[in-house]
Write a structure and sequence with these properties.
The structure is a single chain. The protein is α/β, with parallel strands linked by helices. Bound molecules: 3-methyl-2-oxobutanoic acid and zinc ion (ZN).
């Protein structure tokens, strides 16, 4: 076997469904550009029927990305398929991914449709999608709990109707590798027209088996894997792109197949997704965790120094773990800054926006001297110093005091819907005092679910990147902030979350009826 394994990235769709991971159009473009640079074959950019914002984001990605196929998700309903068809129109290569549930529990309790009706609807949906593109993917949702013979019936019919990719989702992460692999074998060998389609695996990680299940599918004939950067996704997440890609690359002896992924772009992609979504990567995460290549124990180090392969099965540099390269500094001019933004795929709409970012860049360079790509990404993500039209709050200034034996105190000045307001509060620490002061002015009624700080680059002068996750009436948002001062970064993250809670419209979930 020397055919290639198609990598279908759904960070911008299934990954975004993770509560709090919702992304703006500009953020989606930045990630899509990185995925394109990484040579991902298919980018699922969103669910265009969810909202106008989602439609525009898919359309913008379709207009920007040239080398990857851009896919839009659609339930097997007319409006979804037409919206997806319109959204992918600007793409050089566009795909519609339509789906309907096929498991007894989903058909009966969610769809309230009979198996015959489901087959009929699936065929109808694929035919409608084919009016927009000849690249149509079909998924029998919850295939992992569906009757294999019923799956054969649906799949044969949708291939006949024009679906070129058949994706088998283990929607609830219930399958185990041997069983999931056997399902692929059963489908491919029993569906008479299975050779007319590419079979794809889409796994969720509820039992921690998403990558193992996907690889088992590959061993049984799957030629596309659906995955996300850092395994981002609802609940326990989706198959992690970096893990499947490196597994097939490292174990050619087992899989006999490779991907077209430029693996050196994996770590930059991981950092970008973590920065934009606020979902940090655990240090011991395979491939992209900070410790993944740290051979710390003395005995291992000795082995690695004597002969690298004693303990290393992959090289850190092959997945993009290079020492941070300084890209700009204190003396870099506006043109150099603009060029670097373009190289990073960062779209700046107006001169005013560029000027504003350049001022912040200069300010950062004064404090930090050496500026890396990660700093620029963090600077762009952190939009808390500019007040956009859909924002209600902005940090004006912050003063904190802390002394051993004294109660920490924060004085915060905010713009609150056009007025400058100030409050002072005390807390267990300066961050706690800062959040309390902000709350006393805003009275959000939201609860703080998570607070985390990490460093963007190395050294104590690094930007600190802060994430807060807040919940109100069942809605969850992540707020991010970065600054060389972590208390300021924390205040910005808190305010960013408050702005999102106020501004973000509710959007439809594709797996709702
Ligand atoms: O997990 C799932 O079933 C999905 C479908 C929409 C393909 O994400
Ligand atoms: Zn899914």
């Amino acid at each position: 076997m020397n055919d290639s394994l198609i990598i279908f990235d759904t960070t911008l769709r299934d990954g975004e469904q993770s509560p709090g991971a919702s992304m703006t159009k500009e953020e989606k473009i930045r990630i899509a550009k990185q995925l394109e640079k990484m040579r991902v074959n298919v980018i699922e950019a969103g669910f265009p029927a969810a909202s106008i914002g989602d439609f525009e984001a898919v359309q913008a990605v379709a207009s920007t990305v040239k080398d990857s196929t851009i896919c839009g998700l659609a339930r097997a309903v007319e409006n979804d398929i037409r919206r997806a068809g319109e959204a992918i129109k600007p793409a050089n290569s566009g795909r519609i991914h339509t789906f309907i549930a096929t498991s007894p529990i989903h058909m009966e309790k969610k769809l309230r449709m009979s198996p015959d009706e489901v087959v009929e609807r699936a065929v109808w949906a694929v035919k409608l999608a084919r009016q927009y593109t000849d690249n149509v993917e079909f998924s029998p949702e919850d295939a992992g709990r569906s009757n294999p013979d019923f799956l054969c019936r649906v799949i044969e019919a949708v291939i006949e109707a024009g679906a070129g990719t058949i994706n088998i989702p283990d929607t609830v992460g219930y399958n185990v590798p041997e069983q999931f692999g056997a399902l692929f074998k059963h489908l491919i060998s029993n569906i008479p027209n299975s050779d007319k389609a590419i079979f794809s695996a889409h796994c969720h990680n509820d039992l921690g088996l998403a990558v193992a299940n996907s690889l088992s599918a590959v061993q049984n004939g799957a030629r596309q894997i659906e995955c996300t950067i850092n395994g981002l996704g609802e609940r326990a997440g989706n198959t992690a792109l970096e893990e499947v890609v490196m597994a097939v690359k490292t174990r050619q002896d087992v899989f006999g197949i490779d991907t077209q992924i430029n693996t050196q772009e994996i770590v930059p992609a991981s950092k970008l997704v973590a920065n934009i979504t606020g979902f940090a990567v655990q240090p011991n995460k395979a491939i992209v965790g900070a410790n993944a290549f740290a051979h710390e124990s003395g005995i291992h180090q000795d082995g690695v120094l004597k002969h690298r392969e004693t303990y290393e099965i992959m090289r850190a540099e092959d997945v993009g773990w290079t020492a941070n390269k300084m890209v700009l500094g204190k003396h870099s001019g506006r043109n150099a800054f603009k060029t670097r933004l373009e190289e990073l795929g960062i779209v700046i709409e107006t001169e005013q926006e560029l000027n504003e970012l350049f001022v912040r860049f200069k300010d950062l360079a004064d404090r930090k001297h050496e500026i890396y790509d990660e700093d620029i990404q963090a600077l762009v993500t952190d939009n808390n110093t500019v007040m956009t039209e859909n924002e209600s709050y902005k940090l004006v200034s912050l003063k904190v005091s802390t002394e051993t034996g004294e109660q920490p105190q924060a004085q915060v000045t905010l713009w609150v819907e056009g007025d400058e307001v100030q409050a002072t509060a005390q807390g267990g620490g300066v961050v706690d005092a800062t959040f309390k002061a902000i709350e006393s002015m805003v009275n959000s009624g939201a609860s703080l679910e998570l607070y985390s700080v990490s460093n963007v680059t190395n050294g104590t002068d690094s930007l600190g990147e802060t994430t807060v996750r807040m919940e109100k009436a069942g809605r969850i948002v992540n707020g991010q902030g970065s600054d060389t001062d972590i208390v300021t970064a924390s205040a910005k993250a808190y305010i960013n979350a408050l702005n999102k809670l106020k501004a973000d419209p509710q959007k439809a979930h594709p797996q709702s009826v």
